[in-house]
Design goal:
Elements lengths: L15 H26 L2 H8 L7 H19 L7 H22 L1
Helix pairs in contact: 1-4, 2-4, 3-4
Amino acid sequence: MSNTPENTQAPQPQSSESEFYAKAFPILAKVASVTAVLMYVFYFPQIIGNLNGSKGDWIQPLVAAVNCTLWVTYGLWRPAGKRDWPIVIANAPGILFGSLAAITALI
């Protein structure tokens, strides 16, 4: 007979694969967040071009702004203490720059 209760299990040693994910996932998350922010910040040249008379497309930036609004809403509406700040931070610039790119392309 074992000294451990029937409904508990002894801790399993962590596999090298799960160790890899534990180390790689935070790096991947940071890189993905930075590239998401950059993707929206790089609407700035289109906004400048729109203001200087070289109008760009308006639909893609508008859809990006709507998408980012949905993701920011998702990140903020989670229960307190479980809000998904990386999603909010990565998508907030998309609301601003996507909206500006769409509006300046239309005016």
